[in-house]
Amino acid sequence: MNSTSWLGLIGFVVAAFAAASTGAMFKPGAWYEALAKPSWQPANWVFPVVWSVLYCLIAVSGWLAWRAAGWSPALKIYAVQLVLNAAWTVIFFGLHRIGFAMVDLAVLWCLILVTVVMFYRIEPLAAWLLVPYLAWVTVAACLNFSIWRLNAAPVG
To answer: By three-state DSSP, how is residue 129 classified?
Structure first.
């Protein structure tokens, strides 16, 4: 690997963990603890562990696609889904808007799926690295929806 490739990898890691940084800025807190949650919700310690692994996979996936095809349209979708990923934390934990967070997750899920399909055409490994992310966002969407319904939150 040359220095450009290494710098690219560093850039993708920084971008992924910049999206993750909203989790440090907008923590669950007392508001979240007071919400009714489904019995199947994972333990609180699971979330940072899983997300740390996923953000590494997300970064490597983007980097592999970039190395294979440069700044392709697929990477534009990848970038938008990272922004929506970061926005969910702000919407849910920061603004306490459970319904709007659900909308964000629905669009995010679709964009991750589109990214997987587009990456597969460029670099199959890049696509496969996003499958755990898609699976976890599916769980997150089910959890978000359950919390929304359990707390009778209006849309938004």
So the answer is: helix
